Amino acid sequence: MSSHSDGESIKRWAFEQHPVATTIYDRDGRLLFMNTSMRQATRLSEEATRGQLLTEIVQGGEYAEIVQGAEYEELQQRIFRVLETGHVESYEFFVRLASETKAHAWIVDVVPLKDEAGRIHGASVSAYDYSEQYESRERLALLSEARSHIGASLDVAGTAREFTEVTVDRFADVVSVDLLGPVFQGDLPGSDPAEPAPLRRAAYRSAYSGSRGARAAGELGRRPTPRLITRCLATGQAELHQVTDPDVLRWLIRDPDQEARALACAVHSMIVVPVRALGATLGVVVFLRRGSRAPFARGDLAVTEDLVTRAAVCLDNARRYLRERTTSETLQRSLLPRKLPDQAALEIASRYLPAEAQAGVGGDWFDVIPLSGARVALVVGDVVGHGLQASVTMARLRTAVRSLADLDLPPDELLTHLDDIVIRLSDDVEADAAGDVGATCLYAVYDPVSRRCTLARAGHPLPTLRTPDGSTTILNLPAGPPLGLGGLPFEAVEVDLPEGSLLALYTDGLIESRGRDIDEGFDALRQALNRPTPTLEAACDAVLEALPPTRPDDDVALLLARTRALSTDQVATWDLPRDPATVATTRQSVSEKLTDWGLEELSFVTVLVVSELVTNAIRYGQSPIQLRLILPQPVAGQEGTPTRPLICEVSDASSTSPHLRRARVFDEGGRGLLLVAQLTQRWGTRHARAGKTIWAEQVLPAS
Prior knowledge:
Largest sheet: 6 strands, antiparallel
Helix content: 25-40%
Strand content: 25-35%
Low-confidence stretches: 64-68, 210-216, 663-669
């Protein structure tokens, strides 16, 4: 008998002394017993609460001010459900008890109490305070999310914004990331920031609106930096503050973000953490809590330091990427023509749009190259790949094209030589184990006298032509292989262009993008070119507005050229017999033509140049021989002063090129080309399918 009594006592002691807060409810859900742990946790007595429903217990007394009715209503419903179904229910319960200053996390088990026959006579509710485990779990989850979410963007402001998205609401009410000015240019700040620190806002977010704030990323703050921030930057140590310092309050209230000023009055605690990478301080992160949320504690410092350390690595990656991308873009833009050359054959406008940051700098380029005879070469190319290697390869190809263009090669021959150059570049790159070199290119030469354009392409997108009658077509050119394959031919096509025709050359980034095929790109380009625009520059803007996104997947190079034509009174042509006697009559005809053009003061020099070139053609060339003078309209010079070239051309059927040499004292000949070189701004030779043309150009101010 005593053994049974001892057993009952032990059970009663086990219930009373068990560290898990436990209550027992009868079949109607009314309280019967609560153990010591429950009484201590709730500050309620068993006698005062016996026979009451849980919702009745929490409605009065000190609980009326602190509990959220919804939580207790849910627990009451679970008790009723367990009493009815006999199934155990477990869930997490968050509540602030009367003896606590903040809500705790509880694991609650509602268990039915049954007899040997399985009949339900009541239910027990056990509540285990697992706040420490919960907070540890949440911190680990927060750090895990930070590792996976922060750093998705290789953008300084974007990375800072990702950090605030992870930390706001889950850890703090307000988070701001302010970085030192050089970080936004991709540079490392000095190791000893001066006072006051030149902090610029990178990201701002609050749990109340989710906004980043009123200022744009990188904007310089106008508020003075308090001592605690400068101290944090100087020491590299995180600091926890309860916001009672008047200087801190004034600093918060002076925040240029209007929302921050409104929230500052309710802020009660703050953690300031320096952002450090590679031994340098990049900036500072400020965490704020306000209102009824529990203030930051010392244990939160370790969490913030772990979070900011992760963010610092990502911010430094973004900073270094920004520096490398800026360097690449600067290199690329420095290699593109800063100012398109002045010439009379075409009206030119161009645009270059870099790819989005993740894609990296590409190797797209364009160029406009004045040629002899008032002709102009247009070139657009695209090197395969992105990065510095693509930019350097682009620079080498652009230089090669200019050198080949100086030889006045036909477009198909120029691409053949360029193909050989790319193959040699690929061999050099392969030796460095950096991969192959490949490129596409479109080369066109327009002659304003014949109004004819000769084009050839090496795997490049087809050009688009809009004629003055308003029709827009895609020029059908032979594709040609991309540069670097070798051994395959290129073909040139000649197209007659009416004056005022608009020719559009571009790289594939303009017409190809994610979510749109090339045919849709061509249709959008045609529609954009058909849109009325006051200027060619406006036409470029219209094309870019209609086609690629603001940050396209690939670089975009666009070159628009509107054709001009030389009228018959701007060109004079003479067919000459191969007879030395014709030189005198030719000099007379040229002198008369210069008088008609109002250029009598150039007669002596021009007649001398014509005499030398015609004499050489008669003596060393082959029939037919032709002399042509070209006087294009004035174009803007280097200083903005209009200039006009006077071009003299002598053509014959011989392919032998003349050579400039220095005649000896007693030589009777050999001085002709030397005189031509001395009297003109430039001269040269260009070869045709049959024969050659010797040309010389004088540049004279317009009257």
